[in-house]
Amino acid sequence: MHQVKHLLESKGSAIFTIAPEAPVLEAIKHMAEHRVGALLVMRDGHLLGIVSERDYARKVILQGRSSAQTAVSDIMRSEPLTVSPDTDVFDCMRLCTDSRVRHLPVMQDNAVVGVISIGDLVKAVIDAQAEQIEHLQRYITS
Any idea which architecture 4-141 has in CATH? Predict the structure, then answer.
């Protein structure tokens, strides 16, 4: 199975961030603009947490809070699970499934180098399986 670094090479390593004191409304607009489901909450290059559409739905909408008056730090998940570029894609899939998270920051030498989503992982697994099937078909027919 492929490692996270290969996944980042193919999908890119764009990182979308927001400050912890920013209003949740700004975070949601930023997510919509960049068509992502989560933002890394950072200050001075340090990862503080992650905020997702799911956090917004559960911690703002369902609780009747104001997205303009609520700070990102009030709803973010502090100390998010992270992976390294050398982590196996299958291990990331297991981590997402077991922990019920959809986004994993990728860290190297205490710096964020990318973000992968459950969708990225599913695509990588499907691609790997298709490659394996093709290899087996060539083996059988040769």
Answer: Roll (3.10)
